[in-house]
Amino acid sequence: MLDETTFQNEPPVSNQQKILAQKSFNITHKSIRWLVALSSIPLFGFVTAFGIAPNVPSLEDIQVEDVVLDLSIPDVIHDTQENQIFWHQENIRRGDTIAAVLSRLDISDQDSNDFLQAVRGSRAMKHLKPGKTIYAQTSSEGELLGLRYVFGNEELFLMEKNDDEFKIIEQSFELDNRIQMKAGVISSSLFAATDIAGIPNNIAAQLAQIFASQIDFHRGLHRGDRFIVVYEMLNNNDGKRAKTGRILAAEFVNKGKIHQAVYFNPPNGTDGYYTPKGESLRKDFLLAPLDVSRISSGFSHGRFHPILKEWRAHKGIDYAARTGTPVKATASGIVDFSGSQRGYGNLVVLKHNGKFETAYGHLSRFAPGVSKGKRVNQGDVIGYVGSTGMATGPHLHYELRIDGVQRDPTKVALPTATPLGKKELIAFHKETQPFISRLTVMRNIHYAALE
Q1: Running DSSP on this structure, what letter comes out for residue 386?
Q2: Which residue of 91, 379, 401, 435 has the fewest C-beta atoms within 10 A of its own C-beta?
Q3: 11 located within any domain
Q4: CB 388 within 8 A of CB 327
Q5: CATH classification of the domain holding 106
């Protein structure tokens, strides 16, 4: 990098050369290699074309010498005065400390020590994230004048030096909320299709959860099923993606049947997803306790047991998944049992409103706090897939019991949530109509492209 002394000892720079230097800085912060071609032909005065007189040697006869100079352009050159001010951006590397970053910025020992003392209690400076950027304002003498760093997703670290004292603020800032619209087609699985469509995994998981009471994503998807999703994308002040928000509206065509959902937060109720008519999509029971898995054995009154080597009823559904896969409560309820029980291995039994119970067997371990008498909500993680008890491999054994009798969860009509009232419907249609309109626009564009 060119220091202050170098610039002071150089001859005065013309306005045209300053412009060239500024243009080079706008292109890149890295070192720029300047190539200067020296010849006997004048370098200036040409506008659009030139001619060669009959007696003038051809261009091929002229010797050209390449002179290559390595120049490192400083970030910002305000003037040619003694103490210049610069803004730098320094990427955080793996294993970095703020002391290491200050060293790369050539901050003076005095300012480095004073700054490190000032940020001893700073959360931002203790947890530097590799790949993120620190912006620092310095003088040519190594004085640290200011520092900016976005940490977490919604917090900003600010430092300004006033009268030789570092003023530090850590504050939250508003994220720019933008709406994204994407569409896709199922060829193998939901997550494969969302990857192709460029949809974040968090949004794909939300999509599966929204329609979990209507679509069996484990064995009910078909090649050619289509989906549209309208969701929030939250950006930082610099325009970079910070995190995904919630799905605002979605459509899923499964086996030719159209399922639609739109988000709504009632003034006096629980937020959730509804059909465009205002009917809640939330049911008291999810269709499956796992987000990603496959059914290895269904509900049956006669199945050859792989361990006992005999034919017997299999009064539950087995979901094959990797050991450690989170298991979710399919409905809100109270923990009635949490422990080991014969062939079930590690087992959790939940009691729900009325006559319903659910059981989750072969768990590798229990989620923290899941003990008898504790309340859990629908979707809470209660344990993790394993192979304890009578199991030949990692899977979850899931049962739905009604009045103490195991029933096939895929064939039982389960209760739904209370519908919206008349006053709530008025607010619902007003707030959700813009998102439903986006679904219609996206459908016309995407489906027309498929035909």
Answers
A1: B
A2: 91
A3: yes
A4: no
A5: 3.10.450.350
Instruction: Identify whether residues 92 and 119 lie together within a single domain.
Output: yes
The CATH number linked to 346 is: 2.70.70.10
Q: What's the Cα-to-Cα distance from 233 to each of 131, 146, 181, 290, rounded to whole Å?
A: 20, 30, 10, 26
* DSSP letter string, 274-305: E-TTS-B--BSS-S-S-SS-EEEE--EEEEE-
Number of domains into which the chain is organized: 4
Query: Is there a single domain that holds both residue 91 and residue 145?
Result: yes
Q: Is the domain of 160 the same as that of 266?
A: no
Compute the distance between CA of residue 350 and CA of residue 332 in angstroms, rounded to an integer: 8
- Identify whether 447 is part of a domain: no
d(CA 393, CA 95): 39
Strand partners, 399: 359
* Residue whose tokens read 């990857």: 195
Per-residue pLDDT of the chain (451 residues; tens, 9 = 90+): 434 333 333 444 444 433 333 333 333 333 333 333 333 333 333 333 333 334 444 434 444 444 443 434 344 444 444 568 888 888 898 889 999 999 999 999 999 999 999 998 888 898 888 888 898 999 988 999 999 888 876 678 889 998 888 999 887 766 667 888 999 999 988 989 999 999 998 899 899 889 987 888 877 889 999 999 999 887 665 555 567 889 999 999 999 999 999 999 887 667 889 999 988 888 778 878 887 656 656 545 454 445 544 545 667 889 988 999 999 999 999 999 999 998 899 999 999 987 899 999 999 999 999 999 999 998 899 999 999 998 888 999 999 999 989 888 877 877 767 778 888 899 999 999 999 988 988 888 766 555 5
Strands, E assignment, 269-380: 272-274, 294-297, 300-304, 311-314, 317-320, 326-328, 333-341, 345-351, 356-366, 375-376
Query: What token pair was written down for 109?
Result: 């020992």
Residue 11: domain span: 4-44+61-71
Quick one: which of 421, 431, 342, 333 has its CA closest to 382? 333
Specify burial of residue 258 (Cβ count, 10 A radius: 0-12, 13-18, 19+): exposed
Same domain, 163 and 234: no
Task: Indicate whether 212 belongs to any domain.
Answer: yes
Query: CB-based contacts of 251: which residues, under 8 Å, 6+ apart?
Result: 227, 228, 229, 258, 259, 260, 261, 439, 443
- For the chain, the distance separating the N- and C-terminal CA atoms, rounded to the nearest angstrom, is 58
